[in-house]
Amino acid sequence: MKFSLSWLRTHLNTEAGLDAITGRLTAIGLELEGVEDPGASLAAFRIAHVVEAAPHPNADRLRACRVDTGLEIVSVVCGAPNARTGMRAVFAPPGSVIPATGAVLKIGEIRGVESAGMLLSLREMGLGEDHAGIVELPDDAPVGTPYAAWAGLDDPVIEIAVTPNRGDALSVRGVARDLAAAGLGTLKPWAPTAVPGHGDSMVSWAIDMPEACPWVLGRTVRGVRDGPSPEWLQRRLLSIGLRPISALVDITNFFTMDLGRPLHVFDADRVQGGVLRFRPGAGETFRALNGRDYVADSADCVIADDAGVQSLAGVIGGDATGCTEATRNVFIECALFDPVRVALTGRRHAIVSDARQRFERGIDPALLPQAIEAATRMVLDLCGGEASAVTQAGAEPAWQRSASMRFARLSSLGGMDVPPTEAVAALTGLGFVVEAQTADAVRVAVPSWRNDIAAPIVLDQMLGLDADRARTAAEGCALTEPEADLIEEVLRLRGLDNVPPVSLPRAAPVPPAVLTSRQVRSALARRTLAAAGLVECVTFSFMDHTQAALFGDAPDALRLLNPIASDLDQMRETPVATLALAAQRNAARGQIEARLFEIGPAFHAAGQQVVAAGVLAGMTPRHPLYPSRGLGAMDAKAAVLEVLQALGLPMESLNVTADAPEFYHPGRSGVVRQGPKLTLATFGELHPRVLQALDLAGPAAAFEVYLDRVPEPKRRRKTPPDLPAFQPVRRDFAFVVSVDVAADAVLRAARGAERALIAGVNVFDIYSGDKMPPGQKSVGIEVVFQPRAATLTDAEIEAAGARVVAAVAKATGGVLR
Amino acid sequence: MTHDLDTLRTETAADLAAAQDLRAWDAVRVGVLGKQGRLTGLLKELGKVAPDQRRERGAQLNVLKDELAALIEARRVTLDAAALDERLAQERMDVSLAPPLPPHGLIHPISRTMEEMAAIFGAMGFTVGEGLDVQTDWFNFSALNIPAHHPARADHDTFYLPGTRDGRPLLLRTQTSDVQIISMLQTPPPLRVIAPGRTYRADHDATHSPMFHQCEGLVIDRDITLGHLKGCLIDFLRAFFGLATLPVRFRSSYFPFTEPSMEVDIGWNRRTGELGGGGDWLEILGSGMVQPRVLANCGLDPREWQGFAFGMGVERVTMLKHGIPDLRPFYESDLRWLTHYGSSPLAPVALHEGIAP
After folding, report:
1. Using CA atoms, how far apart are residues A414 and B227, in angstroms rounded to an integer?
2. A539 at the B interface (CB within 8 A)?
3. What would the mean pLDDT of A626-632 be, rounded to a whole number?
4. pTM for this one?
5. Chain centroid to CA A527: how far?
6. Which residues of A touch B263 (CB under 8 A)?
7. Do B348 and A527 touch (CB under 8 A)?
8. Of B228, B231, B254, the CB nearest to A163
9. Which of A409, A461, A562, B296 is the most buried (most CB within 10 A)?
10. Residue B39's pLDDT is what?
11. Residues with Cβ < 8 Å from A368, sequence gap 6 or more?
12. pLDDT tens per residue, range B16-40
């Protein structure tokens, strides 16, 4: 919403300057978007009298002028051909900035004659292209007066953002009313005099769609002459960026801005059949004033004559019945429309218009009679003619509402003590009328233009809410909302900045845990992975559906209906997918190694879960002492186990099987479970086909830990640690087993051979080279025997070793090498 | 008579001096003190010495034995030290080489900010709530007093998904307000909850991302006023930015889910981007007292319960706090950017250590 300061002053008597006004606008919720002050750059320029313009002694094309600036007589050298003795011109003093060039003017000497200033052309002032000569002002232009003020160019244009609840503030008068109520002056009275009507209107109304248009007024003015509107009106519209078109159209635009009251003018002679009818669209195509064609459907309210649709009600008028220079009889529309229907029609047809903007927020339903009188008066004033009687259809809806406020609530809800008289004064300043008042409370009638106050309560309560609870809550809402509306108005006008801040009272001397154990798991996983050398990323939850299909089913249920881009149309089923893309981008930027992780949602048709995922791509750094190696499945598995261990899972309760999802290398990937069913994590090298599809050069591994599935660690008191006094004995065994025997199977068998005595087992070597028979490999394991009662004898060690060999043979068919 | 002993002493000393390694040294030792050694030989011959001289000769030999043993040992120590020196000289490495540092992991600035928010609001008695990225339009709009035709729905540029839940269309939440609704439905008041999380809007340019993060907050109690709202947010902003005197301005605004509604600005210098002074104002969050309809939609009686709600952009406050100029790199996973702005996992957010930059 834009308006000029002078336009505002047509409704507001105020001494306040621009800064005070703009500051207050922001404070009361009409947020300042910007101020354009065309006069600011002209502020230094004054009207001056050229006392004498003599030929320059040393230059044929220059003149040496003596200029009366109103303050002094100065010498100015001027090159303009029209500089002459006795003229009034615009003088720029030394130190001022020439708008067109940005140059700072200095006192100088031009060919031996001092020049202490400059006489300006329009172009130099940034006011046009005219550079034929300096500006010539009328002889009565007052010498010494600032030029911008004299020329009416010192009129700043203010732009504010109007929130959706404040349709009334989409008008200069509405803004003025708010400012007056906020103490910045007084609202000028506005009461248009009625224009007597002569004869019936040439066009009349019919409403077939009262839910869309409850009330409409109209009036014909016969015998008009349309043409350019007068300068004051053109200047008003130009100041806010509206192009003057013709007097009749400019008048409708003026009232749209001035009163927030959109009007439309039909050429009465172009309306077929003499009746304009509000009815649902019927699939007709209609050409709007913007030159575009629209198809009106049954949800749209149209205004139609015998020839068809002539207007999309409240949104845009039609070309066929628009006014032109040839218009002689004009029919003025002043209607009330249902805000929702206007909004939907506007949105459906993607038409943004000043009329729509106001109707969809709701206009003053009581203003119609006055507005049509004011509009008629202006048509008569600017275009002549004779007005008919007012014709109308429908009726003024019952908009009257009351709202009550307990004064104590200003403090107990609003946090500010406001004396009742001041609270009431704030409301009456906005146009509320006191209906009843006691020491504790006031009841006011809501002004017609404030459809946001005490509006009908529309609830959409939670399905399945207990009926009594729902009803009580709804009753409470009906009582408290109008009061909150009024409290907001009072606080807004007094300045929310003046409400004293109060720190929240402490709920407990020491705050309890902020996070749930589930949230702590994410935090712990995050720190663990970062401490393990992975860098956390935040990637989009959506991605290209063809790439998403590499990592899952990419079901239609997870495909956005209205994606912003085709590469962001599918919800990811695992963060591995978007991390792999991130790894590819890093590789493309020349990163040799990328260890990335993310803790974020994975989406499935049935819901979402939090996953800690990672992608480890590339090679470790080269170093003279340590060879570079590719990141692989074991790096991914290590990350998985670090996380699971940090989350308190007993490592010995986990098992790993080689049945990971298909985006992994089938032979180099695994699934980590606790017990047979609880899948906790996956890891492995990414499948070569995935790498190829993503243009990611390998090696690359990935992992997922399903944080939501990790069971709560058991909160048991720790048992004392096991610290035997005797030195453990280590023995190595090498078993020849089939190549498809998992090392883990050998370890489990060995460990199970002598549970009480064996404290640890681990693999130290796997060999499957040419010294082994085909299909066989050697698995070297170390077994740690932990004596507890006495040092082991050689015989005891021998016997335990034999049991290990027997157990491994039984479980895996392995023989001691 | 002692001439032979002097000779042995002198010759042994010379032999030791000539021994340049432990092997040569050992040969000298064996040659003197070994079973066949010269001194051992002299001791063996002691019995053959005339008895009247035996005592004196014995004493002289013992003195010589101790003397030679000490000489030999001293030489061993010297040779040992020289051998060690030589070994150490050979083992010298180029200490200017970079060690193979373990990879350096970091926490994303968005996570860091959300942790800081949890810590600061946590100190004020808030807990952290969670919702769903894929929500129904009831949780995202209707419950928050944004009916189907409301202009605010159009402003939000919502992403929609096929299908319904509880008969309501599915969408990607445009705000984390669903958490407020869930909290009111599931937890009896009083309530203090913040909701940091992912949000989505169909907007993509230099200052908008189709996915971003919000942190909303909700306080519901019997006597919470707008003064508490202001106090709580001022307390948060000053702690978060580490500026005890950060100017905070409240101005009237409108949101369907709050009344009165306020935008909150902080003081900064538009030219330098420095927070605090400078005389300019920067909009940083929206807030207000919870609209009675929102309470009623969740089954709370607004005559009994009232409170406030607020919401802020996580990226926005992160950018301001750390002077990050551009929004898009937050989601690009560029290791160079992450390394620059990431934070150490070993310096997690801890109020007692201070969380200001």
Report:
1. 7
2. yes
3. 93
4. 0.87
5. 32
6. 31
7. yes
8. B254
9. B296
10. 86
11. A215, A217, A334, A335, A336, A396
12. 999 999 899 999 999 988 888 888 8
Residue B138: its chain A contacts at CB < 8 A? Answer: 460, 462-463
Window 577-596 of A, Cβ < 8 Å to B: 579, 582, 585-586, 589, 591, 593-596
How far A533 CA lies from chain B's nearest CA (Å)?
4
Cα dihedral A764/A765/A766/A770 (nearest 10): 180
Residues in A closer than 8 angstroms to B128, CB to CB, are: 514-516, 519
Mean pLDDT of chain A: 92
pLDDT tens by residue, A665-699 = 999 999 999 988 999 999 999 999 999 999 998 89
A359 close contact with B: CB closer than 8 A: no
A 327-356 → B contacts, CB under 8 A: 340, 343-344, 347
Contacts of B291 in chain A (CB under 8 A): 481, 484
The predicted-structure confidence for B276-307, as pLDDT tens digits, reads as follows 988 899 999 999 999 999 999 999 999 999 99
Strand ranges in A635-728 using DSSP code E only, listed in sequence order:
654-657, 664-674, 678-686, 700-706
Contacts of B234 in chain A (CB under 8 A): 501
* Cα distance between residue A614 and residue A612, in whole Å: 7
ipTM, two decimals: 0.89
pLDDT digits (tens, 9 = 90+) for A174-201: 999 999 999 999 999 999 999 999 999 9
Q: Is B337 on the interface with A (CB under 8 A)?
A: no
Of A462, A465, A530, the CB nearest to B107: A530
Q: Which of B27, B19, B11 is nearest to B64 (CA)?
A: B11
**pLDDT class of A494 with cuts at 50, 70, 90:** very high
Beta-bridge mates of residue A779: A735, A766
Closest CA to A118 of A127, A126, A108: A108
Scanning B12-71 for CB atoms below 8 A from A yields: none
Instruction: Tell me the Cα Rg of chain B.
Output: 43
Span A350-371, mean pLDDT?
A: 93
Residue A58: predicted pLDDT: 86
In order, the DSSP letters of B19-39 are --SHHHHHHHHHHHHSTT-HH
State the Cα–Cα distance between residues A62 and B94, nearest whole angstrom: 81
Phi, psi of A678 (to 5 degrees): -80, 100
